[in-house]
């Protein structure tokens, strides 16, 4: 896990990489590389190297990333990105019987949106989303809404659905839960979602002057899906 011995997470990782037929492509925004408490390294430690490939960048052209372009054009490739055009992953899994590729964008919501809409390759695969009301276990980082999940949690849920094996999700979540427990024991505070803070009058930062950002906050408070 590359962490100090005192807070080592290796005992919480699977002894052997999980055997899965689904291959993940994690598209990571460069800003995520500098974050200390990242979830993608933990995800990668749970899976074989050929089943979890990480590409860092903002722009992904077909010329510079021919392998990724081939994956995006594969009929069995899915991209996990919620929206009006996305269908529930559970529905796809029922119809799928062959190994698949799943693309997941790793970054803040604004970073992920920028990557998704400014790279034509990512609009080639079938767009899917997770149907879940579960709250994130990643309580040491603020999420936009109560239902937002970290990249590791999204990947764990997606693999569990595609592989039709609930134990996969439990195994991948174990190091994340241990990470949050260690951090809380060493002074970290539980971070409620921005949605929770706004609804309960606990948001203590200045309200944005940007009308678009202000409107997004109003939608959160009024339970409007954004």
TrEMBL record:
<keyword id="KW-0819">tRNA processing</keyword>
<feature type="domain" description="DTW">
    <location>
        <begin position="1"/>
        <end position="188"/>
    </location>
</feature>
<protein>
    <recommendedName>
        <fullName>tRNA-uridine aminocarboxypropyltransferase</fullName>
        <ecNumber>2.5.1.25</ecNumber>
    </recommendedName>
</protein>
<dbReference type="Pfam" id="PF03942">
    <property type="entry name" value="DTW"/>
</dbReference>
<keyword id="KW-0949">S-adenosyl-L-methionine</keyword>
<dbReference type="GO" id="GO:0008033">
    <property type="term" value="P:tRNA processing"/>
</dbReference>
<dbReference type="GO" id="GO:0016432">
    <property type="term" value="F:tRNA-uridine aminocarboxypropyltransferase activity"/>
</dbReference>
<keyword id="KW-0808">Transferase</keyword>
<dbReference type="InterPro" id="IPR005636">
    <property type="entry name" value="DTW"/>
</dbReference>
<comment type="similarity">
    <text>Belongs to the TDD superfamily. DTWD2 family.</text>
</comment>
<dbReference type="InterPro" id="IPR039262">
    <property type="entry name" value="DTWD2/TAPT"/>
</dbReference>
């Amino acid at each position: 896990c590359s962490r100090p011995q005192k807070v080592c997470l290796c005992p919480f990782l699977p002894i052997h990489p999980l055997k899965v037929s689904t291959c993940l492509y994690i598209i990571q925004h460069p800003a995520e590389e500098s974050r200390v408490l990242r979830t993608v390294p933990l995800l990668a430690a749970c899976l074989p190297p050929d089943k979890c490939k990480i590409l860092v960048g903002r722009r992904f052209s077909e010329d510079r990333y021919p392998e990724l372009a081939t994956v995006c054009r594969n009929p069995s490739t899915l991209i996990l990105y919620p929206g009006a055009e996305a269908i529930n992953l559970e529905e796809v899994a029922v119809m799928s019987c062959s190994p698949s590729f799943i693309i997941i964008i790793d970054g803040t919501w604004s970073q992920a949106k920028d990557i998704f809409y400014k790279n034509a390759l990512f609009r080639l695969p079938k767009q899917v989303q997770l149907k879940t009301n579960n709250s994130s276990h990643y309580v040491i980082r603020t999420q936009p809404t109560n239902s937002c999940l970290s990249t590791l949690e999204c990947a764990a849920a997606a693999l569990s659905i595609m592989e039709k094996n609930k134990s996969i999700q439990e195994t991948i979540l174990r190091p994340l839960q241990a990470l949050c427990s260690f951090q809380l024991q060493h002074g970290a505070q539980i971070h409620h979602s921005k949605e929770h803070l706004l609804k309960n009058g606990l948001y203590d930062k200045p309200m944005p002057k940007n009308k678009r950002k202000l409107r997004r906050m109003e939608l959160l408070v009024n339970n409007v899906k954004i």
